[in-house]
Amino acid sequence: MDVHKTLFSPVKIGKHTIKNRIAMAPLTRQMAEADGSPTDEMAAYYARRARGGFGMIITEGTYEEDKLGCKAYLSQPGIANKKHVKGWTKTTKAVHEHGATAIMQLMHGGRVSDPRVLGGKAPVSASATQSGGWTLYTDSDYERQIRNVKNKMWPKVTFNKARELTVKELEKVAQGFADGAARAVDAGFDGVEIHGANGYLLWQFITPKINQRTDEFGGSPENNVRFGRMVCEKVRKAIGKEKLITLRLSQDGVDDFVGAWPGGVEYARAIGNALRGAEIDALHWSSFGWRDNRDSNSKTPMPNVLKEASGLPVITNGGIADGPEAESCLTSGGGDMVAIGRQSFTHPDWPYIVRSGVDYNWLPFDRKYVVRPSLDYGIAYPLGLEDPKWSTKFK
Ligand SMILES: Cc1cc2nc3c(=O)[nH]c(=O)nc-3n(C[C@H](O)[C@H](O)[C@H](O)COP(=O)(O)O)c2cc1C
C-alpha cells in the first residue's frame, strides 16, 4: 500500500504514539441520557470506529460542568460528575482494546447554547452579542421520531442575546475545562481536545466580529486567543504532560457556515504565532474543505499556515473523503494527521477500506447514520466486514 505510506505510519504527538495518522473527527450525535450520562450504545459506536482502524477517536463535543452555561445541546453527553466518568469508562476501555488513542472533546457552547438547556438564563460569550442562527442537530424527521416529539414540526430554536463574561468568570470557565479534563483522564482518556472551533465559546473569542472586548481578551489576534491559551494552561496543570491536549480551530461556525477570518491567512499566521509555546500538543483544523482558505489573496491552505506559524503538529480535517486525498494532505505540509468526519459516520471501516486500495462505492453522508445505533454491521457495508479485500488486522 505504498500510495498510503504516510497515512498508515505511526506518529508521535506529545508523549503519545498513535498507530496511524487517521483520527475520527468529533461528531455530535445527541445520544446521551437526559442527565448527560453516556450510554452503552455510545461506547459500542466508538468501539466500532476503533475496530475499523481509526488510530485516534475524538469524542463528540462534551460539556465539562453542570454550571457555567457550558451545555449546548439536548442529549449532549457530559463529563461533569462521577456518573459521567463511570459511563465514559466503557468507551475508553473498548476503544483501547482496539488499539486506538482516546481523546475527549471538551466544549462550552457560549452564545449558541440551546436556550432549553440553560434554564432561562442568558447564554454567555466574549461580548454581549446575539447569534442569528438556530440550534442544529435536532431538526430531522428521524430524530423527531426517535425522541418522541409529538409536535408536527420540530421547533426552530433561536438563541438568546448573550451576556459578556467578566475576567473573573473567564477564570472560572477555564477552570471548568480543567476540572472536566481531569475527570476525562479519570475515565481513561489519553487526553482532551479543547473546542476552539465551529461557533462555540472559544471560537467566539477568536472571531473578531464577535469579540468586541477592549481588555486583554480582545482587540488583536494575540488577545483573541488569550482565553484559549488560558484554558489550555489550566488543563495542563490539571492533567500533566503525559496526557494530550489538542486545540480545535476553524473559520466557520454552526451559525456561520461561510465564516472567514478577516485578513485570511494573515490572521491564521498571527493566531499560529500567538499559540507558539502554548500548552498544546497539536492543533486541529476544522473545515468542510481543508484546501479552501477563503482568502482570495493566497492559495496556501490554513493548516499549512498554522503548522508553520505555531511550530505545532496539526490534525487536518475537512472534505477528506478517500485515501489519495488524505495522503496528499499529509505529504504536502497540510498536517501530521487527518481527521475524518462524515465518512466515519457512514463507513466505520474507512481506514481498512482505504488501505486495501479497492475500488469502493462511497455512500453519501446521511443523518440516519448519526442517530442509528451502529451495531448493525450491515449498515453501509455492501461487502462483509471480514471481506478479504481489506484486512482487519493492522500490522
Ligand atoms: C452531524 C455532525 C456533528 C458534528 N459535531 C461536531 C462536534 O461535536 N465537535 C466538532 O468539533 N465538530 C463537529 N462536527 C464537525 C466535524 O468534526 C467536521 O469538522 C466536519 O464534518 C467536516 O469534516 P468532514 O468533511 O470529514 O465531514 C460535526 C459535523 C457533523 C456533520
Defining key terms:
single chain, alpha/beta, two-stranded antiparallel ribbon, 13 helices, 31% helix, globular, binds flavin mononucleotide
In short:
The chain is α/β, with parallel strands linked by helices and 395 residues long. It has helices at residues 40-51, 82-97, 141-146, 167-186, 201-206, 221-224, 226-239, 265-274, 302-310, 323-331, 342-346, 350-356, 368-371, and strands spanning 11-13, 16-18, 22-24, 56-58, 62-63, 101-107, 124-125, 163-164, 191-198, 244-253, 282-285, 314-317, 337-340.
Structure description:
With 395 residues, the protein is an alpha/beta fold. The chain has one domain (2-371): TIM Barrel. It is 31% helix and 14% strand. The protein is built from 13 helices and 13 strands. It has helices spanning 40-51, 82-97, 141-146, 167-186, 201-206, 221-224, 226-239, 265-274, 302-310, 323-331, 342-346, 350-356, 368-371; strands at residues 11-13, 16-18, 22-24, 56-58, 62-63, 101-107, 124-125, 163-164, 191-198, 244-253, 282-285, 314-317, 337-340. The strands form three sheets. The chain has an eight-stranded parallel beta barrel, surrounded by six helices. Strand 11, helix 9 (302-310) and strand 12 form a beta-alpha-beta unit. The longest helix is centred in the middle third of the chain and has 20 residues, at 167-186. It is globular and about 55 Å long. The two termini are 12 Å apart. The model is unreliable at 373-395 (pLDDT under 50). The structure holds flavin mononucleotide (FMN).
